[in-house]
Amino acid sequence: MGRHSCCVKQKLRKGLWSPEEDEKLLKYITRFGVGCWSSVPKHAGLQRCGKSCRLRWINYLRPDLKRGMFSQQEEDLILNLHQVLGNRWAQIAAQLPGRTDNEIKNFWNSCLKKKLMKQGIDPNTHKPITDNNNDDVKEKKIEFFDKKSEFFPSSSSSMPISAAELEQTFHVNNGGLILSSSSSMETGSFLTKSICDPLFLVEFHSDIDPIAYNSNLLSQFQQTGYDTTLPNLANFSDHSGSKMNTTTSFIMNEARESSSTTNSNSHMNNSLSAGFQQMTFEGEMFQFNGINVKSEEGCIGQWEQQNMHEVQVNNASDFNIYPMGSLSGEYTDVFHQI
DNA sequence: AAAAACTGCAACCGCCAGATA
DNA sequence: CTATCTGGCGGTTGCAGTTTT
After folding, report:
1. pLDDT in tens, A158-217
2. Residue nearest to nucleotide C6 (CA to C1')
3. Looking at strand B, which nucleotides approach a protein CB closer than 7 A?
């Protein structure tokens, strides 16, 4: 009650730190280490409050800070972490070595937030911005900026004619995996679907053997009733931004209870009958969860009674893989014929 | 060239929880 | 048990540099 702010005392300096002040603080911390911040100003000869010293050290002087722009990988990670954690900047920063909560918060507010809004995504919920507030409405469509040539540089002559011709909607309650594009998604229409995933936000890094990853980390979920089938990651890109060149296949866990809304214009034959659904991708370019991929000739994706969805693809470009877990919500699903 | 608007970011503020007297 | 102190956190502000008018 009635507690004074730490900087209330008249003699304490405020505002930007001078190089001299930085030097004093750096010298002191280097020599004595981080301890009681309230005593630091006195011992270091600074006219600052302890809180200010702490902040200056954490956000600027700490030797392990990473400087410069955020990489694409960092940006992707922040987006995914924010989707799970919300504005818990300290927790997000803990996953990004060398970055501070303040830095990430600023980056979010000045850049990422605007980016998402430009894409028609609510930065708070990470869901498409809707015309109404009815949470029961599962299918939301967003029109994106017409920058098709950026995203599909090699197939401009066969661009989608309209969103109506492209979209295929269905609900999924157990997606099993989130695949997210590393570049911003700027064309076409998005549809949302529910997910509940067995893994919790683990990134694949280049130094992780994806096969070992599958076998080791998935085992703990196999008693939970989740179907833990995951893609063969050996041929997928790691998070370094390299591209997948080889033909590969993956199995996508699909809905436990699935329902679909078919669209006769779609290239997919997607039926609700008898619990068996099949999607055919015959050498087509399409997007899967924001990934720009091309299916192999004659490839058939099946969405069967067991709720499995298998698609063979090749020539995917620029994507990252995020297994997410213990998360119920909605995420974007995209199927585009190019 | 000058003023206004915009942007990025460092730093402050107030609140909270845990520790301590 | 209560009051106070301290560190940590997220929201916000204000400044300096840049871009636009």
Report:
1. 222 222 222 222 222 222 222 222 222 222 222 222 222 222 222 222 333 332 333 232
2. A38
3. 7-14
Question: Which bases on strand C have an atom closer than 7 Å to a protein beta carbon?
Answer: 3-12, 15-16
Domain housing A24: 19-61
- Separation CA A238–CA A243 (nearest Å): 9
Q: Are residues A160 and A87 in the same domain?
A: no
Residue-wise pLDDT for A40-93, tens only, equals: 998 899 999 999 999 999 999 988 888 788 988 899 899 989 988 889 999 999
Task: Answer whether A287's CB lies under 8 Å from A160's CB.
Answer: no
| Domain containing residue A101: CATH number | 1.10.10.60
A310 and A191 in a common domain: yes
pTM: 0.48
Kindly tell me the burial class for residue A335, based on how many C-beta atoms sit within 10 Å of its own C-beta (0-12, 13-18, 19 or more): buried
Distance A97 CA to B21 C1' (A): 37
CA dihedral for A153, A154, A157, A158, sign (positive or negative): negative
Check residues 158 to 187 of chain A and report those whose beta carbon is under 7 Å from nucleic acid strand B.
none
Strand B lies under 7 A from the Cβ of residue A70: no
